[in-house]
Design a protein that fits this description.
It is a single chain. The protein has one domain. 42% of the residues lie in helices and 0% in strands. The chain has 4 helices and no strands. The longest helix is centred in the middle third of the chain and has 15 residues.
Length: 106
């Protein structure tokens, strides 16, 4: 499957693996009080896609982009429901990540 995506122009593939799997980029889950996980996946993928579109050059830090998506999803799971739980990009905190702050300063 990965080779087929490469031929179609997909250069980055994110795989979610079960515990014990091998992944080049590991971002630990943020510790939050979970209320509802309905919008977690959509929020993660949307934030990831938005960041990849904004920082599409090869130099963009993939760890920082995945960290941002993780932060967005951690906000979504703290709110009941789906669409209303998804944060606006501006509402996702970047404090504590010098790499994210540097990306947004560009």
């Amino acid at each position: 499957m990965s080779r087929g995506l490469l031929y179609q122009g997909v250069y980055y593939q994110t795989q979610l693996l079960a515990q014990g799997g091998k992944l080049g980029i590991k971002i630990p889950a943020r510790q939050v009080e979970v209320v509802d996980t309905t919008a977690a996946g959509d929020t993660f993928v949307g934030a990831y896609a938005a960041m990849r579109a904004q920082f599409s050059d090869e130099e963009a830090n993939m760890s920082a982009i995945i960290d941002f998506a993780n932060r967005a999803a951690s906000i979504a799971v703290q709110t009941q429901g789906a669409q209303g739980a998804i944060p606006f990009l501006a509402d996702v905190p970047i404090e504590g990540s010098s790499v994210l702050q540097a990306l947004f300063e560009q």
